[in-house]
Amino acid sequence: MPPVIAIQGLSKTYASGFQALKSIDLDIRRGEIFALLGPNGAGKTTLISIVCGIVRASSGSVTVDGHDIVSDFRAARGLIGLVPQELTTDAFETVWDTVSFSRGLFGKPRNPEHIEKVLRDLSLWSKKDSKIMTLSGGMKRRVLIAKALSHEPRILFLDEPTAGVDVELRKDMWEVVRALRASGVTIILTTHYIEEAEQMADRIGVINKGEIVLVEEKATLMRELGRKQLALQLNGRLHAVPEALQPYDLTLAEEGATLVYTYDTQGDRTGITGFLQDLSRAGIEFHDLQTTQRSLEDIFVDLVRQRR
Amino acid sequence: MISNLRAVRAIYVFEMARAGRTLLQSIVSPVLSTSLYFVVFGAAIGSRITEIDGVPYGAFIVPGLIMLLLLTQSVANASFGIYFPRFTGTIYELLSAPVSYGEIVLGYVGAAATKSVILGLIVLATAALFVPLQIEHPVWMLVFLVLTAVTFSLLGFIIGIWADGFEKLQLVPLLVITPLTFLGGTFYSVSVLPPLWQKLALLNPVVYLISGFRWSFFGTSDVNIGVSLAMTLVVLGLCVVGIAWIFRTGYRLKA
Ligand SMILES: Nc1ncnc2c1ncn2[C@@H]1O[C@H](COP(=O)(O)OP(=O)(O)OP(=O)(O)O)[C@@H](O)[C@H]1O
Ligand SMILES: [Mg+2]
């Protein structure tokens, strides 16, 4: 199946001369939840803004369900709902009015039942006649989500949807997201919370300094995460890994005072027993040990650091 | 160019509702200021200048006053209407929606122009309380009213996109529109000026608007009515060109 969003050679240089995106290539699959991770200033919002029509690309192309975002912007944008990072709402309008306005803006006929459903799903129904300025920050975030869902988008962008949001809303939100995904909506979210990507996403992309440094199935990443390390503090120092221990995945650290064994917790056998036996057979003794597991966060930090 | 009529209507209704919330002040203040002009200029000065071109002074200033209001209100309404979403950031939604620039302009400028036409008619009714008025060409009166409201709402839209602060939003109305209106013959006929000043006055586009509008009331004018109409259309055309340029370049709308 062709990707629902195809991004090719997309670059953005702002008027200040700052290059925020450097030739991005990225395909988003139909119906997936794609998490875009990256440090502050990586270019996540810029990327989303270009796809949604808020920022102009300097070069490259984007198609949304086959529609070019420039030459066929109506068809492309009509499919997209956007929840922006910043809490930018009207102030004096009521919740109902602002959400209905969004639906009209996207050219959809009036449908009070749909608006009601969206407001109820987001626990906003009791606030429907409140002026937006009287709402709390979390409630405003809900309003932004309701606006984005008012016109029944097939693709939803959530730009850091959980920043400054309490546990309750986060739970509500993920429920809504899961229901949307079940109905075939493609979801692209950016986040700083790696657990969130871990929980929600089908695929994870990492962006740093305007470049996509990794796009991977979450399952594959989780397998990578399944790898554990056993560090042994030796009684002496080793200059090299002994011949007899070569079959094991070993590295030396701290100038030979620590021996690190990397193994897969998800394999049938971790090989720890055999390794320890071979170790004592080789006459190597240790006085302490730790095991550590790489988290997605570590992988992420490594990736970002490598590119510095 | 215009196919998402629902969006145009959404913007139009939104903007009209904004005016509705501040209904009292948006009607009271212009009515009050117009009444003040009548008291000061109509009564005080009118007692000395009895007639201009055969029209009693009190009645003579009515078209000019309406124009003054129309110009300032159109510019203020339209510039604020588009500047405010830029300022708060809610413009993101407009830019990400499947709407063309033509539709955006139609919604915002249409609403701003509607508001000023309504205000103009209210002030006209207020004026009728002070002085006996006759309108010789009511259809042309409406044509000039609508054309002027649209033209200056377009200008206001341009200002609202150009401005990058609230001061700039008020700069053009204050430094350009108001002086041009006062110098454009709101309170006098351009023909009373010395010849050199008459020539200079003809560089002021507002002269043509007021003259044409006054003609629709009294059947007499400083400038030929055809010329007035043509000049009004030229100014309108210039604003349209300006807006087309803004949208083609994305000027101050998109990074
Ligand atoms: N309008 C602009 N003009 C100039 N530079 C900009 C503009 N908008 C963003 N930038 C710069 O582009 C870079 C990418 O910004 P962007 O907002 O896309 O990052 P981000 O990944 O969304 O960051 P965050 O996690 O903080 O939201 C930043 O260095 C930012 O300063
Ligand atoms: Mg961002």
From TrEMBL, chain A:
<keyword id="KW-0067">ATP-binding</keyword>
<keyword id="KW-0547">Nucleotide-binding</keyword>
<feature type="domain" description="ABC transporter">
    <location>
        <begin position="5"/>
        <end position="234"/>
    </location>
</feature>
<dbReference type="InterPro" id="IPR003439">
    <property type="entry name" value="ABC_transporter-like_ATP-bd"/>
</dbReference>
<dbReference type="InterPro" id="IPR017871">
    <property type="entry name" value="ABC_transporter-like_CS"/>
</dbReference>
<protein>
    <submittedName>
        <fullName>Multidrug ABC transporter ATP-binding protein</fullName>
    </submittedName>
</protein>
<keyword id="KW-0813">Transport</keyword>
<dbReference type="InterPro" id="IPR027417">
    <property type="entry name" value="P-loop_NTPase"/>
</dbReference>
<dbReference type="GO" id="GO:0016887">
    <property type="term" value="F:ATP hydrolysis activity"/>
</dbReference>
<dbReference type="Pfam" id="PF00005">
    <property type="entry name" value="ABC_tran"/>
</dbReference>
<dbReference type="InterPro" id="IPR003593">
    <property type="entry name" value="AAA+_ATPase"/>
</dbReference>
<comment type="similarity">
    <text>Belongs to the ABC transporter superfamily.</text>
</comment>
<dbReference type="InterPro" id="IPR050763">
    <property type="entry name" value="ABC_transporter_ATP-binding"/>
</dbReference>
<dbReference type="GO" id="GO:0005524">
    <property type="term" value="F:ATP binding"/>
</dbReference>
UniProtKB/TrEMBL annotation, chain B:
<dbReference type="InterPro" id="IPR013525">
    <property type="entry name" value="ABC2_TM"/>
</dbReference>
<keyword id="KW-1133">Transmembrane helix</keyword>
<feature type="domain" description="ABC transmembrane type-2">
    <location>
        <begin position="21"/>
        <end position="250"/>
    </location>
</feature>
<dbReference type="Pfam" id="PF01061">
    <property type="entry name" value="ABC2_membrane"/>
</dbReference>
<keyword id="KW-1003">Cell membrane</keyword>
<feature type="transmembrane region" description="Helical">
    <location>
        <begin position="142"/>
        <end position="163"/>
    </location>
</feature>
<keyword id="KW-0812">Transmembrane</keyword>
<protein>
    <recommendedName>
        <fullName>Transport permease protein</fullName>
    </recommendedName>
</protein>
<dbReference type="GO" id="GO:0140359">
    <property type="term" value="F:ABC-type transporter activity"/>
</dbReference>
<dbReference type="GO" id="GO:0043190">
    <property type="term" value="C:ATP-binding cassette (ABC) transporter complex"/>
</dbReference>
<keyword id="KW-0472">Membrane</keyword>
<feature type="transmembrane region" description="Helical">
    <location>
        <begin position="104"/>
        <end position="130"/>
    </location>
</feature>
<dbReference type="InterPro" id="IPR052522">
    <property type="entry name" value="ABC-2_transport_permease"/>
</dbReference>
<comment type="similarity">
    <text>Belongs to the ABC-2 integral membrane protein family.</text>
</comment>
<feature type="transmembrane region" description="Helical">
    <location>
        <begin position="223"/>
        <end position="247"/>
    </location>
</feature>
<feature type="transmembrane region" description="Helical">
    <location>
        <begin position="169"/>
        <end position="188"/>
    </location>
</feature>
<feature type="transmembrane region" description="Helical">
    <location>
        <begin position="23"/>
        <end position="45"/>
    </location>
</feature>
<dbReference type="InterPro" id="IPR000412">
    <property type="entry name" value="ABC_2_transport"/>
</dbReference>
<keyword id="KW-0813">Transport</keyword>
<dbReference type="InterPro" id="IPR047817">
    <property type="entry name" value="ABC2_TM_bact-type"/>
</dbReference>
<feature type="transmembrane region" description="Helical">
    <location>
        <begin position="57"/>
        <end position="84"/>
    </location>
</feature>
